[in-house]
Amino acid sequence: MAEYVALSWPGTQNGATRAERLPCPYRAYVPDPLVGRPFTLTAQRAADVSDAERRLLELNASPRTLVSLEALARLLLRAEAVASSFIEGLQINVRRLAKADVAARTGIETRDNTAYAVLGNVRAMESALDLADAPSLHVDDILTLHRRLLSGTRDERFGGVVRTEQNWVGGPGMSPCTADFVPPPADRVQALLDDLCAYISGDDHPALVQAAIAHAQFETIHPFVDGNGRTGRALIHLILRRRGLAPHFVPPISLILASHAEAYISALTAYRYEGPADAPEAQEGMGICIDRFTADTIRATEDTDSFGAELDVLEAEWRHKVGTVRRGSSVDLLLRVLPSAPVLTSPTAADLIGRSVQRANDAVNQLAAAGVLKQTTIGKRNRAFEAPDLINALTGFERALASPLGDTRQAAPARPVPYRP
């Protein structure tokens, strides 16, 4: 039975005011386990979930002319990871991250610690997708995911470590007594994580329902000192890939959730019912959470489809600038994969197209001469090239995802976004 447990905060020497340093009572929420928890979808919710799942499958099966369904997958993964960083307060734009990524891949020395922290999010998302092929999920897998997420950041020491103390979310003070939400006590966390992994490893519910419930449960457990939001968003990717709903790429669902922040928080709050799981209030609370997730999944698929079409147009414009290109040539191959590489060097271009560095360099120079690429530098004096049109498109896409209406001209971004170049 889900419940709030009454606890006492012992006080702290670090409080800004005398009241904050004094002991005080608080309530921590302990959710029901997921395995075996009763849940029934209403007919309307079942129809909405089915519609959203159909759209996800159709998006992944799109016969888009862009060979880069794979390129689009990389872009969406990067957009998700970057925006997760913006949500957590790590401000960085598309060009800066792309330069840091190339530097990391080629061993060029830079000191952009913020960019490397954001790249940690990208690695964590990639790690989540790697785990999707395993026959089952274990707590150690989530710890590995979290460890990769915090690798190279100032909080690296917390990576992969389940909390041993009480934490809390929001509120004006330095104790859980005035927090917006207090997760379960530390001694309840391990059992809840074991249960969460067992639930994710099963298939008792439709994939989209499983992703919504597992995400809400993880955010409710809040098992880490830091990085809970980013890890919870990566779990969405893992589940949808694992269940076969998004075999090629996951649209940026969690970014749309964050763009409707108040509704998202309200849904999480509704999910945290008290009493037996089969009570009408509990069933409706879980249903509200699924409604939010379903609606935002539909918008994410629509936005992704539109962005994919925009990339198709962009590739056609590049080909028009370059002129006649022999099919299968290095230039042709580079144009196909360019949407996945806002910034590149000759060696990274060679890796992308599977040709020698010399041939890749010739192709890069040809695209630069046509105005598709523009020369830049990484570090002190390392030559690189960027695709300005792609950087602008990516920036516009990430900004639009942050708008509740999908257009920053109609509704301002609801969260931090990349600034325009």
What keywords describe this structure?
5 strands, 421 residues, two-stranded antiparallel ribbon, mainly alpha
Structure, described:
The protein has 421 residues and is mainly alpha-helical. The protein is built from 16 helices and five strands. It has helices at residues 18-21, 43-60, 69-88, 94-106, 113-131, 139-150, 186-201, 207-221, 228-242, 253-259, 261-271, 280-322, 330-337, 346-353, 357-369, 388-401, and strands spanning 3-9, 24-30, 343-344, 374-378, 382-386. A three-stranded antiparallel β-sheet has the order 3-5-4. A two-stranded antiparallel sheet has the order 1-2. A hairpin with a 3-residue loop joins strand 4 (374-378) and strand 5. The longest helix is centred in the last third of the chain and has 43 residues, at 280-322. The radius of gyration is 23 Å and the shape is globular. The chain starts with a strand and ends in a 20-residue tail after the last helix. The model has no long low-confidence stretch (mean pLDDT 87).
* Rg, nearest Å: 23 Å
Numbering strands along the chain, what is their spatial order in the largest sheet?
A: 3-5-4
Beta percentage is: 5-15%
Mean pLDDT: 87
Sum up the overall morphology in one term. globular
Report the biggest beta sheet as strand number plus sense, adding barrel if it closes.
3 strands, antiparallel
Going by helix content, strand content and strand pairing, the class is mainly alpha
Distance between the terminal alpha carbons, to the nearest Å?
52 Å
Number of helices, counting only DSSP H or I runs of 4 residues or more = 16
